[in-house]
Amino acid sequence: MENNLPKHIGLIMDGNGRWAKKRGLPRKAGHTVGAQTFRKIVRACNKKGIGYLTVYAFSTENWKRPQEEIDAIIKLLRDYLKEAHKYLKENIRTRFIGDLSVFDQEIRDLIVEAEEASKDMTGLNLNIAINYGGRNEITHAVKTIVEQVQQGTLRADEIGEQIVADHLYTAGMPEVDLIIRPSGEYRLSNFLIWQSAYAEYIFMDDILWPDFSEKHLNAALEEFARRNRRFGGI
Ligand code: FPP
């Protein structure tokens, strides 16, 4: 299996609300446990030698949720950012992708600090997607490319897929080759829509994100390796 590891995993951390509801707890309790699960799975991916992991922590659509729930997720993010220095000893490089301009100055400063502090780490590349939407990302890329054409630094006939890819948040990273989504939802939900055009999709319907463990990660990696063996080669 080691030789058949995905280069870039996209992970949709779904099912926190349902997990809480099943226990008669407020939805935010599901996110709190989900954030712990996130820490465990990041460590596990790093240990296994996965190159890139992108997690969907907050989408451009999540602002429609009740304010209390949004505040709870943002607080978890803030807490994580404050302890981000701890992850340096694990050699993890952390980046944030999405339209970060909507976040307050404290969060933006903490993001810059965490990215800067970890920029020379050579282990797992962790991307945390916040206020992220795939269509928003592509639209942003198109705008930047058009501006370059208008300024005369790029010719329209030079624009190809590579130019578009180079203007996404994931510029320079390998394409996503595995998407994992627990909780029984069989959708991409605007996550990495360009990057996962050729990905394998593994949807797990017997597990909600807070209960997701290394065992589930291993099962997904084994399934990925099997699929790759079947379709790889001649
Ligand atoms: C989807 O479950 C989950 C989210 C919208 C939030 C995910 C956020 C975290 C796990 C915490 C992030 C924290 C850090 C530190 C990155 P859902 O609420 O849609 O679940 P449901 O479908 O059961 O309602």
UniProtKB/TrEMBL annotation:
Chain ranges passing through the membrane: none
Q: Which UniProt keywords apply?
A: Magnesium, Metal-binding, Transferase
Which GO-annotated molecular functions does the record name?
A: ditrans,polycis-polyprenyl diphosphate synthase [(2E,6E)-farnesyl diphosphate specific] activity; magnesium ion binding
* Gene Ontology BP annotations: polyprenol biosynthetic process
Binding sites annotated in the UniProt record for substrate: 15-19, 27, 31, 59-61, 63, 65, 181, 187-189
Q: Catalytic center at which residues?
A: D14, N62
Record keyword Cytoplasm present: no
- Reply yes or no: does the keyword Cytoplasm apply: no
This protein's cofactor list reads:
Mg(2+)
Record's signal peptide: none
Entry note: cofactor: Binds 2 magnesium ions per subunit.
Amino acids binding Mg(2+): D14, E200
A Pfam family that this protein carries is Prenyltransf
Q: Which family does it belong to?
A: Belongs to the UPP synthase family.
What task does this protein carry out? Catalyzes the condensation of isopentenyl diphosphate (IPP) with allylic pyrophosphates generating different type of terpenoids.
Q: Which PANTHER family match?
A: DEHYDRODOLICHYL DIPHOSPHATE SYNTHASE 2 (PTHR10291:SF0), DEHYDRODOLICHYL DIPHOSPHATE SYNTHASE FAMILY MEMBER (PTHR10291)
HAMAP family with a match to the protein in the record:
ISPT (MF_01139)
Protein known as? Isoprenyl transferase
- The gene that this protein is the product of is uppS
